[in-house]
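User: I'm putting together a teaching handout on how sequence relates to shape, and I'd like one worked example. Could you take Flavodoxin from Claveliimonas bilis, show the sequence you're using, and then write out its predicted structure as tokens right after it?

Assistant: Happy to. First the sequence, then the structure tokens directly below it.
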Amino acid sequence: MKNIVVITGSPRKGGNSDKMANAFIKGAASQGHKLAKIAAADMNIHGCHACDACYSTEKPCIFHDDFNQIAGAILEADVIVLATPMYWFSFSAQIKALIDRWYSLNRSQEGLKGRKECVLLACGADDREHFEGLERTYEIMAEYLQWKDAGRVIAPGVSAVGDIENTDALEMAEALGRKI
């Protein structure tokens, strides 16, 4: 049994990337994995302040927002899944703020190294090439953290809520969850 944290980055409830996250969760749950879903858009998480005061208190970060409430779950995860719409060729701002705060987690004794990572991406752009910047960022993060890419589901051409249902992305996300 793996401990899996699924982090969503869309402010749109029930949107395409959120549905992909739920499909992944359904697949992973069918295999008996422990799952937690974190909706970054519902949280008060600010970007990193670059103060380097990480762990100078009993918390990963000295700033008091919702990040410290979820830091433990992220540190305990065997697998981290990022489900986000692509905004301007990158992660959404909501999930990016959370990712930036991983700096504090990587400074701890445990760190973030050695996990598995998956990404579930959706975007209204029809061209798969538009995802290259986001995918490359994901790859660099994984390389730096010594994470193993455990899979990707990328859904281009899904702009309106529900467009994802006209693709095979939900089935692919569920299958990835079962495979993990």
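A couple of points you could highlight for students: The chain has one domain: 3-179. Strands lie at 3-8, 34-39, 79-85, 116-122, 148-155.
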